[in-house]
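call fold(seq) -> tokens
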Amino acid sequence: MNYFDAVILGIVEGLTEFLPVSSTGHLTIAERLLGLRVDDPHVTAFTAVIQVGAIAAVLLFFAKDIATIAVAWFRGLVKPDLRGTFDHRMGWYVIFGSIPIGIVGFLGKDVITGPLRSLWVVAVALIVWSAVMWFAERRTTQARHERDLTLTDAVIIGLAQCIALVPGVSRSGATMSAGLLRNLDRVTATRLSFFLSIPALTAAGLYELKDAIGGGVGLGPTIVGTLVSFVVAYASVAWLLKFVAGHSIVAFVPYRVILGLGLIAALAAGWLSAA
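ret:
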């Protein structure tokens, strides 16, 4: 992988990590177009590491909220009278909501980085999950807001995050859909999706770091890809929060379906290979 590849993949990661269009799916497509092997463990490690740039963007964008939650959670551990506060409970929500993907991601690592890294999987998942997003928007009342969040919400949305380990589903698409099906408003569902992404993507990136910088990708391209991802992702986060405040996530469905159908056509015609 050269620096040009790293910049392109960093842009793709930053643009798509938090939009409900599947960053892994887009990275898989971009890798194939760049002539990289999508099932190469060093390439998959690189894509996991540059996600840390996107997470750094979330940490910076929500720095004040994250600090408030963290302080309230730690204070609540030693002061029982503070344990009923929303910020203390939110700390527990993020912790418990992150457990499912930690377990599934670790146990299913070989499948996730192997057989599932196929453009056929990406194409089908893009189309199928679009139907779920459409249904979630049709079904939701959006009657519940951030202060109405419960531990059950966090665990269910955390379980939905596991589905996004399938390339093409989209982590944000899965978590936002689950939030809407729990009748949370879009902004609340989106913010919780951001918060749940922090432990999951940070852990994945750090776990894969050794394979990315020590197995042919190199430290330089890894740093460049991560920095590019950070800059682009920060802009994406700001845009998405404004967008979902007044627009349905169904707006992303046509793009997902067209991309999925286009992939199927390209694969069937032999213009692209699946791996």
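The radius of gyration is 18 Å.
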